[in-house]
Amino acid sequence: MGEQTILEALVLGILEGLTEFLPVSSTGHILLAGHFMGFESTGKVFEIVIQLGAILAIVMLYFSRLLNLAVTLPSSERSRHFVTGILLAFLPAAVIGVLAHDFIKTVLFETPMVICVALIVGGVVLLFVDRLVKAPRYDDVMDYPLWLCLAIGFFQCLAMIPGTSRSGSTIVGSLLLGADKRSAAEFSFFLAMPTMTGAVAYDLFKNRDVLSGADTSIIAVGFIAAFIVAALVVKALLAYVSRYGYGLFGWWRIMVGAAGLAGLLLVG
């Protein structure tokens, strides 16, 4: 493991932290960047595990709220309703993720063309949904009805295709089903906690026999970089989407996807 690999891991960790909670597909970005940089990780574990660094940033920023949920869970029906909704939303991805894990990691993760197309298509969808004139019916994640949570969970499953975006899928689903823009982003944050924790744990288990000490060092660099950068991004994102919506991210997805397609056609 050389300095170049450490530098690549640092760059990819920063990219993960910048994009994890934006509806632009962090996995798509780091897989494309890794492809053109020539970065190879054992079993593509690096690309999954560093996402947990970004998730820990959310846990830190929402710690007081999460602690309040834990304390009030036995006595508050509203807290129990919210936790139940998050678990319901997590369920579809948990089931499909386990069943399709090998196909996702060995086929979809290894097909940059799929990632580029998913980025472009998702960008067009995001632009369309962002411009829909629709009065929101739900503006507080604590009060999302359970059917809405489960439906958002099925939307999240679209993100099994790298380049689609987990946050993008859940946000688009939330907006289409009547949520406002800020609470859609916030629900995506909370749903990321069990989803990505489960994905990381399962991926580490599946690859436990092929990882080495060198892999651990590379993952640690990306993990820490993702944590620090994500902590800086999240609050700014909520403030931005509340005021301006998601149009900018739709255009960004289209540009990155188009640039990726051009790069693949020119250099492979």
Automatic annotation (TrEMBL):
<feature type="transmembrane region" description="Helical">
    <location>
        <begin position="112"/>
        <end position="133"/>
    </location>
</feature>
<dbReference type="InterPro" id="IPR003824">
    <property type="entry name" value="UppP"/>
</dbReference>
<dbReference type="GO" id="GO:0050380">
    <property type="term" value="F:undecaprenyl-diphosphatase activity"/>
</dbReference>
<feature type="transmembrane region" description="Helical">
    <location>
        <begin position="145"/>
        <end position="164"/>
    </location>
</feature>
<comment type="similarity">
    <text>Belongs to the UppP family.</text>
</comment>
<keyword id="KW-0812">Transmembrane</keyword>
<protein>
    <recommendedName>
        <fullName>Undecaprenyl-diphosphatase</fullName>
        <ecNumber>3.6.1.27</ecNumber>
    </recommendedName>
</protein>
<keyword id="KW-1133">Transmembrane helix</keyword>
<dbReference type="GO" id="GO:0071555">
    <property type="term" value="P:cell wall organization"/>
</dbReference>
<comment type="function">
    <text>Catalyzes the dephosphorylation of undecaprenyl diphosphate (UPP). Confers resistance to bacitracin.</text>
</comment>
<keyword id="KW-0046">Antibiotic resistance</keyword>
<feature type="transmembrane region" description="Helical">
    <location>
        <begin position="48"/>
        <end position="70"/>
    </location>
</feature>
<keyword id="KW-0961">Cell wall biogenesis/degradation</keyword>
<keyword id="KW-1003">Cell membrane</keyword>
<dbReference type="GO" id="GO:0046677">
    <property type="term" value="P:response to antibiotic"/>
</dbReference>
<feature type="transmembrane region" description="Helical">
    <location>
        <begin position="217"/>
        <end position="238"/>
    </location>
</feature>
<feature type="transmembrane region" description="Helical">
    <location>
        <begin position="250"/>
        <end position="267"/>
    </location>
</feature>
<keyword id="KW-0378">Hydrolase</keyword>
<dbReference type="GO" id="GO:0005886">
    <property type="term" value="C:plasma membrane"/>
</dbReference>
<dbReference type="GO" id="GO:0009252">
    <property type="term" value="P:peptidoglycan biosynthetic process"/>
</dbReference>
<keyword id="KW-0472">Membrane</keyword>
<feature type="transmembrane region" description="Helical">
    <location>
        <begin position="82"/>
        <end position="100"/>
    </location>
</feature>
<dbReference type="Pfam" id="PF02673">
    <property type="entry name" value="BacA"/>
</dbReference>
<keyword id="KW-0573">Peptidoglycan synthesis</keyword>
<dbReference type="GO" id="GO:0008360">
    <property type="term" value="P:regulation of cell shape"/>
</dbReference>
<feature type="transmembrane region" description="Helical">
    <location>
        <begin position="184"/>
        <end position="205"/>
    </location>
</feature>
<keyword id="KW-0133">Cell shape</keyword>
